[in-house]
Amino acid sequence: MKHLLCLSEWSGNEIIETIKLAEQLKFENKNGIRHNHLLKGKTLGLIFAKASTRTRVSFEVAMYQLGGYSLFLSSSDIQLGRGETVSDTAKTLSRYIDGIMIRTFKQSDVVELAKQGSIPVINGLTDSQHPCQILADLQTIKEHKGKLESLKLAYVGDGNNVANSLLIGCAKVGMNISVATPQGYECEEYSINVAKEAAALTGATVTITNDPYEAVKDADIVYTDTWVSMGMEAEKEKRAKIFMPYQVNNRLMEAAKADAIFMHCLPAYRGFEVTEDVIDGPQSVVFDEAENRLHAQKAVLVKLLG
Ligand code: CP
Ligand code: NVA
After folding, report:
1. What domains are defined for the chain?
2. Cα 173 to Cα 34, 132, 134, 143, 297, distances in angstroms
3. Contact 306, 39 (CB under 8 A)
4. Is 187 known to be catalytic?
């Protein structure tokens, strides 16, 4: 484990071990045990080409609590935003810091950064993947359901970065996943194929459908995300019409298991992908997910930089 670019490169075991470490760090932290020796003196650069609340704050706080230091590098302020190559950026930053987290558009830029640099790279979201989110989500599911294997997660909405990474992450840990999107908004082929290959090993099932009610049937977890990911703002109105039948509302939640939990990576848009009564209701665990970004990323940082 040198980088976290896409969960496809991690084994199911590595994912599970990382979640276990996240659980331990969370438990100890809540019981007053300090971890500021774990990454003492280490420095993490945080490159952001897109907005963020959770990713930025949780990585900064994680580094602080682990005894390290983080630098926020907005791509509009560093030379990368003015046309310096990813390769030169990677080689330069490798001379100063111990790791890079990057949130950007193209997955290939993250791969290039890892290839050209000599330090661990963590994908903090691309158009294609959001692996840090899924590690925190799996930790959250385990907390609420006591296990991961053989549960069923239904993702309803846009076949975006979060959906792609969920497919891979769930299949790798043996969770059944069913993804319902409108026609033409399915997950990328690559992630579907990786998930199906992983599922063949773990015994999980991967279902791709256009029917939200089929997806949520017998689901332990109902998950959605925004219909308008960063960079797609121009499609907002068109998407609102196409996606409305995929809204997670009480009627859809009632079609899942009675004890199903509702998940959303946030930021959420109430009245669009989810109704207010669902996201603010008793089945919602969205702020546990947000909190677990901190713990799961600490585990990733300790494994990659420690
Ligand atoms: N879920 C998530 O990545 O949130 P931010 O965009 O606020 O970082
Ligand atoms: N799919 C969303 C996730 C935000 C955390 C986006 O890419 O904007």
Report:
1. 7-130+293-305 (3.40.50.1370), 133-289 (3.40.50.1370)
2. 30, 15, 11, 15, 18
3. yes
4. no
Measured CA angle at 66 (ends 169, 93), to 5 deg: 80
Tens of pLDDT, residues 31-86: 999 999 999 999 999 999 999 999 999 999 999 999 999 999 999 999 999 999 99
Residue 225 known to be catalytic: yes
pTM score, whole prediction: 0.98
267: DSSP letter: -
pLDDT per residue as tens digits for the range 91-134: 999 999 999 999 999 999 999 999 999 999 999 999 999 999 99
From the list 54, 56, 239, 293, the catalytic residue is: 293
How far apart are alpha carbons 167 and 177 in whole angstroms?
A: 7
Best residue among 57, 101, 125, 287 to mutate for probing ligand 1, ranked by most atoms within 8 Å of CB: 125
